[in-house]
User: Which sequence fits this backbone?
C-alpha cells in the first residue's frame, strides 16, 4: 500500500510556471512507477506525464511535451512536475498516481491515487 499527496497547485498567469510535488509514503514506495494526470471541468481525466521507478524513463503527452518535466527524488520519495509556459488550457485538477507495475499512459495502470491539486492558468 502507498499513499500519495499532491501539492503545489495554484493560480498563475499564462506563460508562467508552477512546480507540483507528489509525496509518496508506504511500503517500499521508491519502487513505484509514478504518473501525473489531469482533469478539466466537463472533460475526462487525461495522461500528462509518467516516470519509471528509477527515473531513467519518462513519458509525456504531446500537449505538454517540451513545456513540462517530470522527475523524482527517491531519497525523498517525491515526484515533481515542473510546468513552464503554462497555457489556459492547462487549467485542471492534477492528480498523482503510483503503481507497482510498469506505469505508462493509461490511468488503469495505476493502483494508488492522490486527491488532486488545482492548477488555474489565467489568460
Assistant:
Amino acid at each position: 500500500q502507498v499513499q500519495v499527496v499532491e501539492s503545489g497547485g495554484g493560480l498563475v498567469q499564462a506563460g508562467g510556471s508552477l512546480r507540483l510535488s507528489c509525496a509518496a509514503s508506504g511500503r517500499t514506495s521508491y519502487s513505484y512507477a509514478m504518473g501525473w494526470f489531469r482533469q478539466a471541468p466537463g472533460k475526462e481525466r487525461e495522461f500528462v506525464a509518467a516516470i519509471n521507478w528509477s527515473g531513467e524513463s519518462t513519458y509525456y503527452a504531446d500537449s505538454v511535451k517540451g513545456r513540462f518535466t517530470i522527475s523524482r527524488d527517491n531519497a525523498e520519495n517525491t515526484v515533481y512536475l515542473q510546468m513552464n509556459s503554462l497555457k489556459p488550457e492547462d487549467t485542471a485538477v492534477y492528480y498523482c498516481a503510483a503503481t507497482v507495475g510498469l506505469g505508462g499512459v493509461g490511468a488503469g495502470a495505476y493502483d494508488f491515487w492522490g486527491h488532486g491539486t488545482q492548477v488555474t492558468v489565467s489568460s
